[in-house]
Specification:
There is one protein chain. The chain is of the alpha/beta class and 253 residues long. It has one domain: Rossmann fold, CATH 3.40.50.1820. The chain has six helices and eight strands, in the order βββαβααβαββαβα. It has an eight-stranded mixed beta sheet with strand order 1-2-4-3-5-6-7-8, sandwiched between helices. Helix 1 links the parallel strand 3 and strand 4. The radius of gyration is 17 Å and the shape is globular. The two termini are 32 Å apart.
Length: 253
Amino acid sequence: MSAVHDTNKACCSIPPVQSDYKSKGSYQKVGQFDKAYVVGDSKTHALICIYDIFGFFPQTEQGSDIVSQALSGTKVIMPDFLQGKPWPEDNFPPKTDEDKQKLQEFFGTTANVGDRLAELKSVASTLKSEGYTHISLYGFCWGGKVATVAAGEKDLFKSVAIVHPAMLDVKDVNGIEVPFGFYPSKDEPSDTIKEFQEALSKKAFADKNDYKHYENMHHGWAAARADLKDPENKKAFEDVYGRLATFFGSNNQ
């Protein structure tokens, strides 16, 4: 599996935004991960969230809180897939050729899609062994790529959604086997978005999919790069998490 990030310039140039949101959940041990953000108390329904390359951020946790509450306490779990080594926000965007190369190496090692996919499947299997019968998944940016590839695991996941995904590739649609929510921004390649959505519309479960192109939003508007002091960003942020809750509420049954 390719370790090289795509050419989405916005993904590799827009820095994270600070937030003073106070998360409602807590950090807990989940499966092989010593640290995971967890909110919600359901013993049967769970959502796994894959954050972006900046790791745990208040805005991403705020989104988890919104979805959990909207789905009556569905447990949302955000494992520390980057193992305490997210890309440092003080070195973003990378400015020197050396730092740009380090970012590509980051995608090939710490954020390697294949390795993180194996860990994701292990977490889902652990949840199943603990009695969770309805598990779904969503991811942002880099996490959206991992989630897309995981959408072929229909024995583990009821449904999958991606928000402003990185490394978007229409060939990945061939492997998608479960209802799929697709929420790109203005910064993903428009031709790829169109091809990706057209391919999704041909799936046997297309009537269960959900799609909205947030054409006025930058890459990252729903995760670490969300500027919730901006009214338009806040409106789109609330909208996409509402759509995620509705989508998972319909398909994680």
